[in-house]
């Protein structure tokens, strides 16, 4: 498929972001290793700049704009993490940025984008509501759209997560990656398969937003109409067309996780690894702890982010 990103695209993105992004470590997860009988690691993208993997794709995108395009400013339709990432990258390039966020955006994610200098506009609750408002801004103010996932530059940037896994653990056997709109899962699965073709890649999505599960059954992206749940970063109503092409080529299987499993996984990550994960960020660990994925050999769970405020953690995890 000529539309798929190549290893050259991925390595170019890695070089582009190397001076600004964090090469997040692979941390041994001894608790899960002892429990599951396989060597488990986590890749904590909550330690990435902006608190999530999204900075990788945002910076890779903005770095390829020319001066005239940067002068126009950028608009990011986002449930939260993409907005913060674009705001941070725009700040680095001296650009103005607008974040189009849902009316239900968490306080932590809105405040994060505002702190980084983005102007906030609220639009509905769905992916399409945000996209349509962003299109209006492009037409009215001449801004550049930075898609959250359905773009080669975004997919390649997010895919550097997979390159780092293959670099740090060449004999990796299984990789679990969260699925939202598909930028991370599409890019990371491509990188893993191109660098470690023996590895098994498992996509993990919320049971309340099974957009990839439905798409695989239909053979094309399917619009779910409406999604809701705790994993706000993974509630896209439809997987992107270009990410889906990567999923088809590179992802071996997909599992869905119930919301009830997410706070339990968040607590384990906090208690055992001292990592603060948002619900979306904990979903791969939830899949392992719930027995939805049987780990095979050296296994990596990608933790996509940790943008959650203290009150949100307290509300989800409770007193004991």
List the helices and strands and how they pair.
Elements: H1 7-17, E1 27-28, H2 30-36, E2 40-44, H3 54-62, H4 67-72, E3 74-77, H5 81-93, E4 97-101, H6 107-115, E5 119-122, H7 127-141, E6 144-145, H8 152-168, E7 174-178, H9 183-195, E8 200-206, H10 211-218, H11 241-250, E9 253-257, H12 261-273, H13 283-289, E10 299-303, H14 310-317
Helix pairs in contact: 1-3, 1-8, 3-5, 3-8, 5-6, 8-9, 9-11, 12-13
What does this protein look like?
This protein has 320 residues and is of the alpha/beta class. The protein folds into 2 domains: 7-52 and 151-317, 3-Layer(aba) Sandwich (Rossmann fold); 55-145, Rossmann fold. It is built from 14 helices and 10 strands. It has a 6-stranded mixed sheet. A 4-stranded parallel sheet has the order 5-4-3-6, with helices on both faces. Helix 1 packs across helix 3 and helix 12 crosses helix 13 (283-289). The chain is globular, with a radius of gyration of 18 Å. The termini are far apart.
Question: What is the total number of structural domains?
Answer: 2
Q: Can you identify the CATH class of the largest domain?
A: Alpha Beta
**Main structural class:** alpha/beta
Indicate the percent of residues in helices: 40-55%
Order of helices and strands: HEHEHHEHEHEHEHEHEHHEHHEH
Largest sheet: 6 strands, mixed
Number of helices: 14
Broad shape: globular
Named at the architecture level, the CATH assignment of the largest domain is 3-Layer(aba) Sandwich
Mean pLDDT: 94
Secondary structure: number of strands? 10
Rounded to the nearest angstrom, the distance between the terminal CA atoms is 51 Å
* Cα-based radius of gyration, to the nearest Å: 18 Å
pLDDT under 50 segments (min length 5)? Answer: none
Beta percentage is 5-15%
Which sequence of strands runs across the widest sheet?
A: 1-2-10-7-8-9
CATH topology of the largest domain: Rossmann fold
């Amino acid at each position: 498929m000529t539309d798929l990103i190549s290893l050259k695209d991925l390595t170019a993105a890695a070089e582009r972001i190397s001076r600004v992004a964090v090469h997040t470590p692979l941390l041994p997860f001894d608790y899960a290793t002892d429990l599951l009988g396989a060597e488990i690691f986590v890749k904590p993208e909550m330690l990435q700049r902006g608190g999530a993997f999204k900075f990788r794709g945002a910076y890779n995108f903005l770095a390829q704009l020319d001066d005239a395009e940067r002068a126009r400013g950028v608009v990011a339709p986002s449930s939260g993490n993409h907005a913060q990432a674009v705001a941070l990258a725009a700040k680095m390039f001296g650009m103005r940025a607008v974040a189009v966020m849902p009316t239900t955006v968490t306080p932590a994610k809105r405040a994060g984008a505002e702190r980084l200098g983005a102007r906030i506009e609220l639009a509905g609750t769905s992916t399409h509501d945000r996209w349509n408002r962003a299109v209006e801004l492009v037409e009215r103010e001449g801004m550049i759209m930075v898609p959250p996932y359905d773009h080669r530059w975004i997919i390649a940037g997010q895919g550097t997560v997979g390159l780092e896994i293959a670099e740090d653990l060449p004999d990796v056997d299984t990789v679990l990656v969260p699925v939202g709109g598909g930028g991370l899962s599409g890019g990371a699965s491509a990188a893993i398969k191109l660098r470690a073709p023996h590895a098994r890649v498992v996509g993990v999505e919320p049971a309340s937003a099974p957009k990839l599960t439905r798409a695989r059954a239909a053979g094309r992206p399917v619009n779910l109409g409406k999604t809701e749940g705790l994993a706000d970063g993974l509630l896209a109503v439809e997987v992107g067309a270009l990410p889906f092409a990567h999923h088809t080529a590179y992802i071996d299987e997909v599992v869905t996780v119930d919301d009830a499993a997410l706070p339990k996984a968040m607590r384990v990550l906090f208690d055992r690894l001292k990592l603060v994960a948002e619900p979306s960020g904990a979903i791969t660990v939830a899949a392992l702890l719930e027995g939805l994925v049987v780990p095979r050999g050296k296994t990596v769970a990608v933790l996509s982010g940790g943008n959650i405020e203290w009150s949100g953690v307290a509300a989800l995890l409770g007193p004991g």
